[in-house]
Amino acid sequence: MLAGILRRVGRRLLASIPALFGVVVVTFVLMRVLPGDPAVFFSSGPSAGKEEIEELRRSMGLDRPIPVQLVRYLGEVATGNLGRSMTTGQPVVVDMTRRLPASLELTCTALFIALLFSIPLGVAAALRPGTAIDHIVRMLCTLGVCVPTFVSGLLLIYAFYYLLGWAPDPTGRIDIFASAPPDITGFFLIDFALKGDWEGWWAAFSQLLLPACTMALFVLAPLARMTRASMLAVLGSDFIRTAHAMGLSRLRIIVAYALRNALLPVLTITGIVFSTMLGANVLVEKVFSWPGVASYALDALLASDYAPVQAFVLLMAMIFVMVNVTIDVLYGIADPRVSVA
Amino acid sequence: MAGGAWPASAQSRAETLRYVTGATINTLDTTMPGATREAFGLSMNVYDRLFSFGRKKVGDNWAFDPDTIRGELAKSYSISPDSKVITITLRPDATWHDGTPVTAEDVKWSLDRHVTAKSLAAPQFTTGSLTNASQFKIVDPQTVTVTLDKPDRLALANLCVCYAIMINSKLAKKHATADDPWAMEWMKTNTAASGAYIIDSHKPGESTVLRRNEKWVGGAGGALPSFKRIIIQTVPEPATRANLIERGDADLAIDLAASDLPTIEKSAKSKVVSIPQTNGFTHISMNTQMAPFDNLKVRQAVAMALPYEDMFKAAIFSRGTKLYGGTWATVPPDASFPQAIPNKTDLAKAKALLAEAGHPNGFSTTFAFTAGQTATAEPMAALVKESLGKIGIQVEIQKKPDAEFNTLESEKKMPLFTDGATAWLPYTYYFFYLYFTRDQRWNFASFKSKKMEDLTLDARYQTDKAKYEEGCKQMIELFNAETPLIMLWQPNHDAVMAKSVDGYTYQFYRQADFRDLKRV
Q1: In this predicted model, what pLDDT tens digit does every residue of A107-136 receive, in sequence order?
Q2: CATH 1.10.3720.10 domain extents, chain A
Q3: How far is B352 from chain A (nearest CA, A)?
Q4: Rounded CA separation B161/B178 (Å)
Q5: Over the stretch A56-91, which tens digit does the pLDDT of each residue have?
Q6: Of residues A274 and A281, more confidently modeled
Q7: How confident is the model at residue A263 (pLDDT cuts 50, 70, 90)?
Q8: In the CATH hierarchy, which fold is given to the domain comprising A95-334?
Q9: Of B27, B188, B207, Cβ closest to residue A176
Q10: How confident is the model at residue B352 (pLDDT cuts 50, 70, 90)?
Q11: Are B188 and A49 a contacting pair at CB < 8 A?
């Protein structure tokens, strides 16, 4: 079975290479078609004249024809050089390796919180369809998905930081006066735990909680709704009736038989939700000054800063591929019939 | 949480200034093309220049004073009788951050770099007739001379600007390569400075931490800055910055939304310091090379049709100085600029002028602004559209992303738009030279006038004060007669800070100078 999984993973990864290549080329061309000249934007000093703009354009390699730029860029990407960001002045690879863990940590925590609430809510709603519980769950989900994340984020900040003073100030991953953990994995919670610094861990965690809840609220709806729908379908099927007939305990039927089978579509949607969250949490990152990749890419986009945007899209495409492969593998574990094919 | 870390270091919290900003420091070398305004601010605190502008009281607050120039790394200077040779004596006790002494050799290397390397310093320095390395000579280890071909009035002032950093040449040269003799690549991420603060850590887009240079001698009267530690933190959301200041967790911010200011003015822990941007102006530009704005009467009609008072209230909540409604007619009362231009709303006259110009039924045009200035420009645009509509000019409002707007502005493709400008060297002649001559980006209205070129050229090398002022008045007169762009106002620079912070000074580069601040 393990060999089978590995073979499938390998095949999937190979098959994704043309798609990634396409993404790189399309982003590359798209960035250059967009109006806005980065050379003009960045030479905005009080004395920047025509020659300075030309010089900057030359140093950015933008004076050459687009096909030549593309070939050069592809060569650089192949060697792991993603260019230099004009917005931060750093190589994009350096920025990304520092910022990606921040985004991943936030997204994973948010997803965890979302799953923690949405699955029980979805199950509860499915067990009592049409009752008050079902309606309350539906209302919660609608509310979560309707309120834009920057509104819920600002509201949470206003309530928990500004009025109540329970939350630390919503600026970044750790209190600015405290020291960051040693850079081991880039995930603050893991790094603090490895170092055994629980006070630091708590500081990082309390900083993480508000933005993670904001994001979790937003994705509660698809997860809970999907759990409910899928649970309803499974609960109505023959094998559940059989289980009831055999007198198995209600808890055992719901958790071991119904939920396990109902989780397959939830797993698929979780994969999609995760990839979307990673790219779409730009507003949460902005509101909470979270130094993640999404806000980084947005800043770069507004400044017509090509390299970071291209790198971001490539990274997202790669993560999307990885998530899909992972979901595939998990699928196989949840439902052994899949891996036979 | 924060509570755990503070009590033990309450003293150091008082000695620490936490500055929150929406922007990013993208280079440690300000002379690099693409340096952000935030990078200029950092550089002023980390690097020394040979000279520095003094400061003066404007109302209750402080602003930089371009008319007093004091030595920073220079202990003293003298100018030859023909105004062509500046002799600069260095401070004998000045040292670089690595402890080595500042020498004339370092100064010469730095100045050479600014006029030779392909950086933004070179074009800036040409405005002070500093163009060639042979102009800078070492007399002895403490003395340097700067020789000018002509007595350029801005030579000394140019040595005060953000680009004119003095660099530890021995350190920089160690990191220079054959391709990069001026160590430009290395200096983007490293410093070779002597300034008031030393960079402890720098994470672009997150935070930068500075500590005081205890051996700094460049201060006014040799005084050290009051704050021992500065934390510059990027907080992109203006509402969050406002919250931080109001709660007293952050000490200073300068780029809050105007709508947050009234709340902060009432709050118990924070205050607003509003200083007119004496070196800036917000304007509506018309492309003088593009029909129909190539017609003077059309430009005058637009200038008379604008609802100045309503715009002043709606766009900036009256937080600024008016540059319209001047009480003179053709000859300005003095040589200062920007000053109030005699523009006022007169729709009947505007309509008549438009008819004279051959557009009795008006015409259609676009009015553009950058997304970055939405808060002020959007209400302004609506008023412009309404008011110009009354005289028959149909206006389509265009809000453009910053990069696109800058490109269109640079390529002179917009007929009518609004933008702001600030001049580092706020001398009347320099305003006209920078904004109303030559085919270059900052000539917003693409204004072409032989007379203006001649006037600015003469003023530049004019050593007679009376003649210079007469020339400046003529420039203002010409500007008013030709109306290439319409002056609106000088917006206030609003710095928001904890009640305990004092001494904030408005600087020509519109950033916080931490050296002036103290906690009281």
Answers
A1: 999 999 999 999 999 988 988 888 898 999
A2: 95-334
A3: 39
A4: 29
A5: 788 777 888 888 888 888 888 888 888 888 878 788
A6: A274
A7: confident
A8: MetI-like fold (1.10.3720)
A9: B207
A10: very high
A11: no
Q: Among all chains, which residue has been given the structure tokens 């696109």?
A: B404
Alpha-carbon distance of A6 to A319, in angstroms, equals 18
Chain B residues within an 8 Å CB radius of A286: 236-237
Q: Which residues contact A246 (CB under 8 A, 6 or more apart)?
A: none
Please tell me the predicted confidence (pLDDT) of residue A1. 65
- Alpha helix stretches (DSSP H) within chain A: 2-33, 38-42, 50-59, 66-78, 92-127, 132-146, 149-156, 188-195, 198-235, 238-245, 250-252, 260-280, 282-287, 293-302, 306-334, 337-340
Which residues in chain A touch residue B402, judged by CB atoms under 8 angstroms apart?
36, 41, 302-303
pLDDT at B41: 94
The whole-angstrom distance between A30's CA and the closest CA on chain B is 15
- pTM score of the predicted model: 0.84
Q: Identify the residue whose tokens are 């505007």.
A: B350
Work out whether the CA dihedral B188, B192, B194, B196 comes out positive or negative.
positive
The confidence score (pLDDT) of residue A340 equals 44
CB proximity B2 to A under 8 Å: yes
- For B247-280, what is each residue's pLDDT tens digit? 888 999 998 887 788 888 888 889 999 998 989 9
Q: What is the pLDDT of residue B284?
A: 96
Contacts within 8 Å (CB) and 24+ apart, A213-216:
A213/A110, A213/A113, A213/A156, A214/A110, A214/A149, A214/A152, A214/A153, A214/A156, A214/A284, A214/A287, A214/A288, A215/A106, A215/A107, A215/A110, A215/A114, A215/A149, A215/A277, A215/A281, A215/A284, A216/A110, A216/A111, A216/A113, A216/A114, A216/A117
> Is pLDDT of A325 > 60?
yes
Burial track A189-200 (b if 16+ CB lie within 10 A, e otherwise): bbbbeeeebeeb
Summarize the confidence of residues B46-55 as an average pLDDT: 95
Q: Which of B235, B435, B444 to mutate to test the interface with A (most CBs of A within 10 A)?
A: B235
Q: What is the DSSP string of B140-169?
A: ETTEEEEE-SS--TTHHHHTTSTT-----H
| SS3 label, residue B30 | coil
Query: Cα–Cα distance between A294 and A313 in angstroms, integer?
Result: 10
pLDDT band at B12 (very low <50, low <70, confident <90, very high): confident
Which residues in chain A have their CB less than 8 angstroms from residue B424's CB? Answer: 46
Closest by CA position to B343, among listed B382, B401, B299 = B299
B410 touches A: beta carbon within 8 Å = yes
**Confidence (pLDDT) at B59:** 85
Instruction: Give residue A153's identity as a one-letter amino acid code.
Output: G
B236–A291 CB contact, under 8 Å? no
For an interface test with B, give the residue of A287, A289, A299, A309 to mutate (most B CBs within 10 A): A289
Alpha-carbon span B452 to B428, nearest angstrom? 12
Which of B4, B203, B205 lies at the smallest CB-CB distance from A296?
B205
Task: From B476, B417, B403, select the one nearest B290 (Cα to Cα).
Answer: B417
CA count, 13 A, side-chain hemisphere, B518? 7
Token pair 């098959």 is found at A15
> Measured between CB atoms, does B61 come within 8 Å of chain A?
no
- C-alpha Rg value of chain A to the nearest Å: 24
Q: Is B221 left (phi over 0), alpha (psi -120 to 50) or beta?
A: left
Q: Chain B residues with CB inside 8 Å of A35's CB?
A: 401, 403-404, 407
